Amino acid sequence: MAEKKIKLSPNSLNLFLDCPHCFWLDKNLGIKRPPPYPYALNSAVDALLKEEFDTYRAKKIPHPIFKENHIKAHLFGNQKLLNQWRNNLAGIRYFDEDLKATLFGAVDDILEFDPSAGSGQVGALAPLDYKSTGSTAEKVYDRFQLQLDTYTFLLEKNGYKTAGKGYLAFYIVDKSRGFIDRLPFRKEIVEIETNPADVHEIFKDAVDTLRMATPPKHSSDCAFGKFLKSAKGFN
């Protein structure tokens, strides 16, 4: 029987790091953790931000958030390729011949820094991810770091030079300004040093785990594993 094709995303790697047991069940048996409350508003904001950033891209002018934060880069100019990289079914991907598995990710956007004068090459790239939140301040979670690290890894595996950093553009609901039929946001951008060096090892460990005949144990701090363990006491 043909071996099941393995395709993993940054979310998959985050699940693996959080709990290899839940990861194994999800990817091998389709047994998923209970889904969180749907973030329909976040998805709407994400779609609107893509439209806004694409408008600036088409005009070939910097988005104001970069000027305000003194980031000397411009939006990646190849809209057709970016649309492919944004697609959840395509994304930017890398097939590892040794692992016989694919790692892919759907980026929000890409920044490009100017190449060396006269080089005629594409400048160094950096992933940009939009985050909308109702919290009072931005918060950088470990999963955001892995997300940007993975995008950087994928860009490099596709032959692009990277800038060694990624960006999180936070759109934070400004509750001090009221509602009045319009939800006001304030913008913050966070620069993060990316480290793609560990991504391949995490990818390999995740693939090896999926090929185990039986699932590994829950991680010690997995809330779902703790729940199941406590529930058994009522049987």
Short description:
By secondary structure, this protein is an alpha/beta fold. It is built from 8 helices and 8 strands.
Q: What's the topology here?
A:
Blueprint lengths: L5 E3 L1 H9 L1 H10 L10 H20 L4 H5 L5 E2 L3 H8 L5 E5 L4 E5 L3 E4 L12 E9 L8 H16 L7 E9 L11 E9 L5 H12 L12 H9 L4
Parallel strand pairs: 1-4, 6-7
Antiparallel strand pairs: 2-5, 3-4, 5-6, 7-8
CATH class: Alpha Beta
Instruction: Give the beta-strand count.
Output: 8
Radius of gyration of CA atoms, rounded to a whole number: 20 Å
How many structurally independent domains?
Answer: 1
Bulk shape:
globular
Task: Please report which band the strand proportion falls in: under 5%, 5-15%, 15-25%, 25-35%, 35-45% or over 45%.
Answer: 15-25%
| DSSP summary: helix tally | 8
Helix and strand pattern: EHHHHEHEEEEHEEHH
How would you describe the overall organization of this protein?
- The protein is α/β, with parallel strands linked by helices.
- The protein has one domain (6-230): Lambda Exonuclease, Chain A (Alpha-Beta Complex), CATH 3.90.320.
- 38% of the residues lie in helices and 20% in strands.
- The protein is built from 8 helices and 8 strands.
- The chain has helices at 10-18, 20-29, 40-59, 64-68, 79-86, 142-157, 199-210, 223-231; strands spanning 6-8, 74-75, 92-96, 101-105, 109-112, 125-133, 165-173, 185-193.
- The protein has a 5-stranded mixed β-sheet. Strands 1-4-3 form a 3-stranded mixed β-sheet.
- Helix 6 (142-157) links the parallel strand 6 and strand 7.
- The longest helix is centred in the N-terminal third of the chain and has 20 residues, at 40-59.
- The protein is globular and about 55 Å long.
